[in-house]
Amino acid sequence: MTKKSMDHHNMLRKVSRTFSLSIEFLPYILRESITLSYLLLRVSDCLEDHEGIPTEEKPELLRLWANVLNGSAAVEELSQRIAYLDPSDDPEVQTAQQAGEYLRLLRNLPEDLQKIILNRVEQTSLGMARWQEHGPFVEDEAAMDDYMHQVAGLVGYLLTEIFAWYSPHIKQRIDQLMPLAREYGLALQTVNIIRGMRKDYERGWVFVPQTFYEKYGLTRDGLFAPENLDKAVLVINKLADKASKHLLNGINYIIALPRYQHKIRLACMWPLFFAIKTLAVSKNNVNVILKEAKLSRDQVKKIIRDTSWFGWSNHWLFYYYKQLSHSELE
Q1: Contacts 24+ apart (CB under 8 A), 245-249
Q2: Residues sharing a CB contact under 8 Å with residue 307, sequence separation 6 or more, in sequence order
Q3: Domains, the chain, ordered by start
């Protein structure tokens, strides 16, 4: 393994310890393609989220990045536009500023894989640009689903298309898998929104639908006011109900994957069951509003151990889903 390939795998660990666990467990060609996919998506995330980028420039930069991906713009133009961002102790900025290197590494992959990755990351980036122009509020559940599709549903499609390229049996099931792939992405993103409500609010964004909190007489700011914690918990639980539906379809996605592709199934199980457990500890938990609810390392290790032993069984997956869904913070 070359020094350069070590670099991009190390960067994956820096930007996401959770997803690196799953990605590094995969067979080599899947590990390479999904690692690069993830890093290219984090370039989009940086352009969407970074507080140092003026709000009015974000859609333009995201569309420039989309043009880099489709070959109509040079990556050097993007690099120059974001050169002023400080990469110190910020792996997401480091990733964005090394986008050219990751695109170079992408060219080592088979051409069909390159097309899948570039197409889906371009689509996601354009969706992010549209939402940056839309503004930091979500009118209703349909709008929330649209946002989540852009940033997570399309990623579900991306993963499934890569898996289908790798496995003829998965390719045969692609029509069944694609709608569930979107649900899988929405499941993870709904829980991510719940978990990150406070941080998103502090940077000016609220992804909770207005209809969800207005139902309880709350305003956008009132949702996060300490005196409204009792009503805010009701909003969290309404979001949790929505997340549960997506998560159950996420289980159906994994079950639709061939059981003999155990590594692929496990790589999909881990983020999903982390999300299921995170949702369980978020229900009725005021920390979601005040700071953040997250899993301990021991809880993560237990999920990895349990699924590694028993995850081959589709029946057990439903049992484990129910068990984690009804568990609380230990």
Answers
A1: 246/183, 246/184, 246/186, 246/187, 246/190, 247/187, 247/191, 247/272, 247/275, 247/276, 247/279, 247/321, 247/325, 248/321, 249/180, 249/183, 249/184, 249/187
A2: 266, 269, 270, 273, 320
A3: 1-109 (no CATH), 136-330 (1.10.600.10)
Residues 6 or more apart whose CB falls under 8 angstroms from that of 100 comprise 75, 76, 79
The pLDDT, as a whole number, for residue 47 is 98
The Cα 82–Cα 89 span in angstroms is 16
- State whether the Cα torsion 190-192-198-203 is positive or negative: negative
pLDDT tens across 191-249, in order? 999 999 999 999 999 999 999 999 999 999 999 999 999 999 999 999 999 999 999 99
pLDDT digits (tens, 9 = 90+) for 233-274: 999 999 999 999 999 999 999 999 999 999 999 999 999 999
With beta carbons less than 8 A apart as the criterion, state whether 307 and 273 touch: yes
Tokens coding 197:
């409500």
15's tokens: 């930007």
Helix axes 262-282, 154-166, angle to 10 degrees: 160
Can you say whether the dihedral through the CA atoms of 94, 67, 19, 247 is positive or negative? positive
312 to each of 137, 150, 170, 304, how far by Cα in Å? 41, 31, 16, 13
C-alpha span between 112 and 122 (Å, rounded):
16
CA distance 265 to 261: 6
pTM above 0.90, yes or no: yes
Banded model confidence at residue 286, pLDDT cuts 50, 70, 90: confident
Residue 304 identity (one-letter amino acid): I
CB 178 within 8 A of CB 116: no
